[in-house]
Write a structure and sequence with these properties.
Layout lengths: L2 E9 L14 E2 L2 E5 L4 H8 L6 E6 L2 E4 L16 E6 L16 H7 L13
Parallel strand pairs: 1-6
Antiparallel strand pairs: 1-2, 1-3, 4-5, 4-6
């Protein structure tokens, strides 16, 4: 059976699901799963309850947020970078100008949209 390797990042209190790679504020476990694995399979592998995750990014695209998790069935590819933030985390500064949406979020929010732009009052 073929496998895929994932670059997983667990931030804040979710770092406890990172096993030996856990540090105080993050963990970066290298995860190997069978080809065809989905986000739900990754969560099970990590023993991470989906209800504990806040924002989720796959390759820099927003795939889930609290109360909206359309990514559970998204199939992962070899080399994907998946970042899970805890529920109390702030919006990552690198996305202050908006963020692209993963396919499931795009379906939920509208195709071709970017979300969460900072507003600057002038």
């Amino acid at each position: 059976m073929e496998n895929i390797s994932l670059d997983v990042w667990l931030y804040g209190s979710l770092s406890k699901y990172g096993g030996d790679s856990a540090k105080k504020s993050y963990a970066n476990p290298k995860v190997v799963l069978p080809v065809g694995s989905r986000i739900i399979d990754l969560l099970h592998h990590l023993s991470l309850p989906t209800e504990e995750r806040g924002l989720t990014f796959i390759n820099g695209d927003l795939s889930a947020m609290p109360g909206l998790q359309p990514d559970l069935e998204q199939v992962l590819k070899d080399g994907d970078r998946v970042a899970f933030f805890h529920l109390q985390s702030m919006w990552p500064a690198q996305y202050r100008h908006g963020v692209d949406l993963a396919p499931g979020m795009s379906d939920e929010m509208g195709p071709g949209k970017k979300v969460f732009h900072h507003r600057r009052d002038t």
